[in-house]
Specification:
alpha+beta, Immunoglobulin-like, ten-stranded antiparallel sheet, nine-stranded antiparallel sheet
Length: about 325
């Protein structure tokens, strides 16, 4: 046998080994071949319900109006739905990582361990997707279409958004008032009780046994800005909310407009790590019946001491 024949045989063996190795890797789902996963592009207006189910835990996001949604009956954050719908397309081409059911449990895309994402609109299913374990790359996850043996690696925000709890979906805004709409701020901090009142462009500070006087204008401006956007860090559980309602509030605040109409009234119940906050009046007092959690320093900013509003003596 000539050297040329031996070289051709060796070359054939190398090619065969390469083909066998590639097929073996593909069968184990260890390749990074771009797969054929294409999800429908969903517009917010076409969607009316989003369900995320994992085992016995589930959350339902339901449309109440073109701009309002609820999650498990509570007010949902304004941009939560748009964030999820964008995440369904915020990815490079998904990579095929497995194509047999033997990989489902390992990648958490089986019916028992996967997070089932179901989107419907007009009573019709628009999307069904199983989101599994986090992938090998930061921010990635394994996904599969129900009834399909192919598993894909998905990069983007989908994994973190599918992991959100019902509280993560909820609207944490408590109130938001334009400074010009506020004409009276009444604050109670234990025995300290004072009022800030606006007349035209001037404010007066009264309370604590002293007559009305001009407060520090900078401190008043900072206080008004804090009420432009007031948000919670979380929510009380039902037992915590029941306990908070039974407590005597540590602080109170009410804000009124120039006609004397209550814009918002809040009470603050002190805890070891912050405050429970709930609205007691006004159209801008957050979700009715909700008890919010706030940090102590944020509550201090909303209910400063009277001394913090008094001008420094020169």
């Amino acid at each position: 046998m000539s050297a040329k024949q031996l070289w051709l045989i060796a070359l054939g063996l190398v090619v065969a080994l390469l083909l066998w190795g590639g097929a073996e890797r593909l069968s184990r789902g260890s390749d990074t071949v771009t797969g054929g996963l294409v999800l429908p592009r969903l517009a917010p207006g076409a969607v009316d319900t989003i369900r995320v189910v994992k085992g016995r835990d589930s959350l339902v996001v339901a449309k109440q109006s073109p701009t309002a949604w609820t999650v498990n009956g509570h007010r949902a954050a304004p941009d939560a739905v748009n964030d999820l719908l964008r995440a369904l397309h915020d990815s490079v081409a998904p990579e095929l990582v497995a194509q047999d059911s033997g990989s489902f449990a390992r990648l958490n895309v089986d019916s028992a361990t996967g997070r089932w994402l179901r989107v419907t609109g007009g009573g019709k299913p628009l999307l069904r997707l199983i989101v599994g374990a986090r992938g090998s790359e930061y921010g990635s996850a394994y996904v599969r279409l129900p009834g399909d043996a192919h598993v894909y690696l998905w990069r983007g925000r989908l994994a973190s958004l599918a992991d959100r709890t019902a509280d993560d979906w909820r609207d944490k805004r408590i109130t938001g008032l334009a400074p010009d709409s506020i004409a009276l701020i009444d604050v109670e901090r234990g025995k300290d009780h004072y009022s800030l009142r606006r007349a035209g462009k001037r404010w007066t500070l009264a309370g604590g046994g002293a007559g009305a006087r001009a407060p520090d204008s900078g401190a008043v401006a900072r206080l008004l800005e804090k009420y432009r956007s007031v948000s919670a860090t979380g929510f009380a559980s039902q037992p915590q909310a029941d306990s908070a309602r039974a407590m005597r509030p540590a602080r109170r605040v009410s804000l009124r407009d120039a006609r004397g109409v209550v814009l918002v009234a809040l009470v603050f119940d002190s805890t070891a790590s912050g405050f429970w906050v709930r609205g007691t009046g006004g159209a801008a007092a957050g979700e009715a019946g909700t008890v919010y959690r706030m940090n102590a320093w944020d509550v201090d900013g909303l209910t400063p001491t009277r001394g913090a509003l008094v001008p420094n003596k020169k």
